[in-house]
Amino acid sequence: MIDKLVMATNNANKLREAREILAPLGIEVISQKEAGADIEADEIGDSFEENAVIKAQSVYDIVGLPVIADDSGLCVDALDGRPGVHSARYAPKGKECDKLLEEMKDVPEDERSARFECWLVYMDYDSIEVVTGSCEGRIGFEKRGENGFGYDPVFISGERTLAEMSADEKNAISHRGAAMRALYDLLKERYGE
Ligand code: IMP
Question: Which architecture does CATH list for 4-191?
Answer without folding.
Answer: Alpha-Beta Complex (3.90)
